[in-house]
């Protein structure tokens, strides 16, 4: 005889991970987001964030790595860091049925991949509720910059110019920061130091100071 089931317990929702994979490579003037064309229904052929269903017993970071490697073609060795952002629980967000989405972030090092990289300020329309995920997570990413040092170092690298710091901050906050205020903020971080080196990013303009993690 099959075991009795409790009819008062509602059916469970599936749990997925959708990853905001970011790149800010040396030749990039702004932060880019990795997106991919869906290879299955629903939304076949539409652009979307890389996502996977959460594996039973898996850690979120492990499945975030899996989403980036399998959907964007980024080698695991090129994923500098990952982390968790927020959960989206709209019951109708997926036409296949109720599915929670845990939004994660990942930062990718320079590498060849199959991803489409879109400037964070010009992401095209995405499938599911991924437009909302990007919009709601962007200020969370902006808040992490300069406060979550794992995220900040992964995005900017072991050393970076003041010009690059301004560009990354502007990309996440939507508005350019005040350079003087940003310099004071960076100077207040104990593990970040301003060096005597300078670099010129353009043929004109003042050379920018180089900052490095200690």
Describe the structure.
By secondary structure, the chain is of the alpha+beta class. It folds into two domains: 121 residues, Nucleoside Triphosphate Pyrophosphohydrolase (Alpha-Beta Complex); 64 residues, Arc Repressor Mutant, subunit A. Helix content is 27%, strand content 29%. The strands form two sheets. Strands 1, 2, 3, 4, 5, 6 and 7 form a seven-stranded mixed beta sheet that branches. Strand 1 and strand 2 form a beta hairpin. Helix 2 crosses helix 4. The longest helix is centred in the middle third of the chain and has 15 residues. The chain is elongated, with a radius of gyration of 20 Å. The mean pLDDT is 94.
Number of domains: 2
Residue share in β-strands: 25-35%
The CATH topology label of the largest domain is Nucleoside Triphosphate Pyrophosphohydrolase
Task: Give the CATH architecture of the largest domain.
Answer: Alpha-Beta Complex
The total strand number stands at 10
H and E order: EEEEHEEEHHEHHEE
| Unreliable segments of 5+ consecutive residues | none
Radius of gyration: 20 Å
Summarize this structure briefly:
The protein has 5 helices and 10 strands; from the N terminus they run E-E-E-E-H-E-E-E-H-H-E-H-H-E-E. By secondary structure, it is of the alpha+beta class. The chain folds into 2 domains: 14-134, Nucleoside Triphosphate Pyrophosphohydrolase (Alpha-Beta Complex), CATH 3.90.79.10; 150-213, Arc Repressor Mutant, subunit A, CATH 1.10.10.
């Amino acid at each position: 005889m099959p075991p009795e089931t409790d009819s008062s317990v509602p059916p469970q929702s599936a749990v997925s991970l959708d990853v905001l994979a970011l790149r800010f490579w040396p030749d990039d003037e702004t932060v880019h987001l990795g997106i991919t064309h869906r290879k299955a229904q629903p939304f076949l052929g539409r652009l979307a964030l890389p996502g996977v269903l959460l594996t039973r017993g898996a850690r979120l970071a492990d499945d975030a790595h899996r989403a980036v490697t399998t959907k964007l073609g980024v080698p695991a060795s090129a994923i500098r860091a990952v982390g968790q952002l927020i959960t989206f629980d709209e019951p109708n967000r997926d036409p296949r049925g109720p599915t929670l989405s845990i939004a994660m972030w990942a930062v990718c090092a320079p590498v060849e991949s199959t991803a489409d990289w879109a400037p964070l300020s010009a992401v095209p329309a995405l499938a599911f509720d991924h437009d909302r995920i990007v919009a709601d997570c962007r200020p969370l990413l902006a808040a992490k910059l300069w406060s979550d040092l794992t995220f900040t170092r992964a995005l900017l690298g072991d050393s970076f110019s003041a010009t690059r710091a301004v560009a990354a901050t502007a990309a996440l906050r939507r508005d350019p920061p005040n350079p003087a205020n940003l310099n004071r903020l960076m100077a207040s971080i104990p593990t970040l130091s301003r060096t005597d080196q300078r670099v010129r990013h353009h043929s004109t303009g003042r050379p920018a100071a180089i900052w490095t993690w200690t």
